[in-house]
Amino acid sequence: MIPRVTLYTRAGCHLCETAKENLLAARRQTDFTLEEVDIDTDPHLRTLYNEEVPVIAIDGKKAFKYQVDPQAFLKTLRGRT
């Protein structure tokens, strides 16, 4: 089963752009689906993650917030599969 990674983000967030770049770099080393969700389109998500973006979830479980190192991400991803 291919892991599902969700990047919770918002427009104009430079940390979010860096997190996305790091996730795309990690995807060159292993397979996972990547979904990007703008928290400002959903009041519930905005309440959950407003002060934490970017947030990265793996298979629905929060794994990282603010920053994600590609190698740490890969290690975490492999530990969940």
Pick out its properties.
alpha+beta, 3 helices, globular, 81 residues, four-stranded mixed β-sheet, single chain
Describe the structure.
It is a single chain. By secondary structure, the chain is of the alpha+beta class. It has 3 helices and 4 strands; from the N terminus they run βαβαββα. The protein has a 4-stranded mixed β-sheet, with helices on one face. The N and C termini lie close together (8 Å).
Q: What are the SSEs and their pairings?
A:
Elements: E1 4-9, H1 14-27, E2 33-38, H2 43-49, E3 55-58, E4 61-65, H3 70-80
Parallel strand pairs: 1-2
Antiparallel strand pairs: 1-3, 3-4
Helix pairs in contact: 1-3
What's a concise summary of this model?
The chain is α+β, with helices and mostly antiparallel strands and 81 residues long. It contains three helices and four strands; from the N terminus they run βαβαββα.
Helix and strand content put the structural class at alpha+beta
Number of strands: 4
Helix and strand sequence = EHEHEEH
Helix content: 25-40%
Detail the poorly predicted runs.
Answer: none
Strand order of the largest sheet: 2-1-3-4
Gap between N and C termini:
8 Å
The coarse silhouette is: globular
- Using only C-alpha atoms, the radius of gyration works out to 12 Å
Biggest pleated sheet: 4 strands, mixed
Number of helices: 3
Overall mean confidence score, pLDDT: 94
User: In percent terms, what proportion of residues is strand?
Assistant: 25-35%
Oligomer: single chain
